[in-house]
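User: Run a structure prediction on this.
Assistant: Running it now.
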Amino acid sequence: MATLKQLHIFLAVAETLQMSEAARKLYVSQPTVSQTILELEREFGAVLFERSPRYLKLTAKGALLWEYAQQVADSYTLLDHGMKNIPSARELRIGATITIGNTLLSGIASALKKSQPDICQHLYVENTQALESRLLQGEIDIAFIEGVIRSDKIVKLPFAQDALELICAKGHPLYGQKQVRAEELRNQDFILREQGSGTRNIFENYMRTAKIPIHVVGESTSSTAIIEMVMRGLGLGVLSRLCVQRYTSEQLICSCTIQGMPMNRYFYICYLAGHPVTSQMADLIRLSQQTVQLA
């Protein structure tokens, strides 16, 4: 098999069309150049140069070898440059939906920073629709998503379970109930997450199935803002159990389920199908699963 050194000598001869000039260019002896060309001709069973006392000329087989040898040399140049310029930090662009960003992301990112300090994290907190677009456009490497992913080009790995809950303020007629009927929500005011949110999509789909219209009086990308408006009696809300558990434990608001609407869901680790799972992505997947299990 031809070596990289032999191919470099061949390319030099093909460029200069003189054995002596190629030897001078490569700082080797002319006999070494001549011997290398003979070895290549024996290996490939073909004459690579037409020889005369005054010049060399590539044969058809020689021209073919030149084309392939040039590709090998170019690839090696890229390899050499890449290996010598590997950044000290492993870059990782991480997306998270707003619900996960408000609850689990900081713990996962902190644990990753402690266990893998060479990973340079770039965090993006947006709704499901925006993150799906970012994944498809190659703007992020991996994302934590709880909403419905529509593209079949995205891999989904479940890593945690969650449930949506209806929340209301003290003094509301539904306060203190563990479960309400869907019909009781007719004509109620709602403060919901923004359009494109996985949380909102799930609730709207259930209410659509129950044939109950939703009267939306406010919407926000912030779970905290929604909880604050609910506490002020401006309407009902629907949020992740993880988002509201501190407020319900302090009895600042009340949460309950809706009869016939088991709004359970999974949180998913998502990445683009065909995207190589880099070492930093693998580290994040492993650590996020461990972190959620310990929580």
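The chain has three domains: 4-84, 90-160+266-294, 163-265.
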